[in-house]
Amino acid sequence: MPQTPPTRFAYLGPEGTFAEAALSRAVAPGEGVRQPAVSVAAALAAVRAGEADAALVPLENSVEGSVPATMDGLAEGDRLVVTREVFLTVSFVLAARPGTTLDGVGGVVSHPHALAQTARTLARLLPGVPTLPASSTAAAARAVAEGAHDAAVCAPIAAERYGLVPLAEDVADHPGAVTRFVLVSRPGALPAPTGNDKTSLVVVVADRTGALLDVLREFAVRGISLTRIESRPTRDRLWVYSFSLDCEGHVAEARVGEALAALHRVCEDVRFLGSYPRADGRTNRPVPDESADTAFAEAGRWLAGLRTGDA
Ligand SMILES: O=C(O)C(=O)Cc1ccccc1
Question: Can you supply a Gene Ontology BP term from the record (predicted)?
Answer without folding.
Answer: L-phenylalanine biosynthetic process
